[in-house]
Amino acid sequence: MAAVSAAPVIRADLSEAHPRPSGAATEGEAHEVETDRHGMPIHPGKTLGEPVVVLKDVRKAYLLDGGASVDVLKGISLSLDTDPRDGTPSEFYPIREGEFVLLRGASGQGKTTLCNCIGAIDSVTGGSIELFGEVLDAKAADSERTLADLRLRKIGWVFQSFQLLGALSAFENVELPMSVLGELSKQERTARAKMLLAMVGLEDRISHLPSELSGGEQQRVAIARSLANAPRLMLLDEAVADLDTRNQVAVMNLLLRINLERKVTMIMVTHDPHLECYADRILYIRDGRIEAQQINAKQTPLDAEAHAAFLAAEG
Ligand SMILES: Nc1ncnc2c1ncn2[C@@H]1O[C@H](COP(=O)(O)OP(=O)(O)O)[C@@H](O)[C@H]1O
Ligand SMILES: [Mg+2]
């Protein structure tokens, strides 16, 4: 058993730039959450696993035409390293197996860049990312085969714009990552694709092309596809930003179910404060750094009707 201290880890003093969500568990006074010996909170009702994403002073600079460079990520750490001066743990702890983390912040602050670096589709220029024990640093960018394998097996991506292949049916889109991995027979792939489409509520749409599906349906196909190879981490960049309120809530509730039932770790980028209630932790990104974090004691789904009414009343 880990020793338990009772340090307060929920902060009430988040800036006004991050308005409180509607009806969310994060609303109201800060309260204390028990922490383990590493300073990581003990979530009531949810057991989180080992650290799976560890960031150490992650930096990303883009070289512009003409030779100038722009610093986009300016030293992001999510780690248990202690301060060498006083031995205190770093403020932001690693992402743990089964955790649902939201990355919030205004446009242009580096959220997508961070997501892409964690998901091994972009490389860092300084510091390191440890993803399931695999170290991604500036040197790792060379071993494209390792990175491609990591992406295919461990990571499920969901993007704002769905990015389904337009010439393939829903079923074929979901089957594709399994065919690329090449570990299942045709029969097993078919059964799994059907199971995943049923899980997202689209068992009667499997032969439809993306153009024959609504936005919400397309995003549910994209979620089913992202789960094809049973990833341990889902990365969701503004995955509900293009959906109407009811579909947003439906997709968020689906993601919460996947997170709780399948214990898939989730990192989701959003600018929507109302979605904070779905997360275990919210990291606020500003100017390439983590500005603050907030811990949500209990993940809570929104009610679609009530949320739509709330937004309508809010204007
Ligand atoms: N390939 C690139 N080359 C140069 N600058 C980039 C590139 N990609 C992103 N940036 C810059 O990095 C900053 C952060 O971008 P991004 O990570 O997309 O922010 P966010 O997702 O928070 O809106 C922006 O100022 C953007 O212009
Ligand atoms: Mg972005």
Automatic annotation (TrEMBL):
InterPro entries: AAA+_ATPase, ABC_transporter-like_ATP-bd, ABC_transporter-like_CS, ABC_transpr_LolD-like, MacB-like_ATP-bd, P-loop_NTPase. Residues 73-312 form the ABC transporter domain. One of its GO terms (molecular function) is transmembrane transporter activity. It comes from Cafeteria roenbergensis. Keywords: ATP-binding, Nucleotide-binding, Transport. Residues 12-45 are annotated as: Disordered. It comes from the Eukaryota. PANTHER family: ABC TRANSPORTER ABCH.1, IMPORT ATP-BINDING PROTEIN. Residues 28-39 have a biased composition (Basic and acidic residues). Signal peptide: none annotated. One of its GO terms (cellular component) is plasma membrane. This is ABC transporter domain-containing protein. It holds the Pfam family ABC_tran. PROSITE patterns: ABC_TRANSPORTER_1, ABC_TRANSPORTER_2.
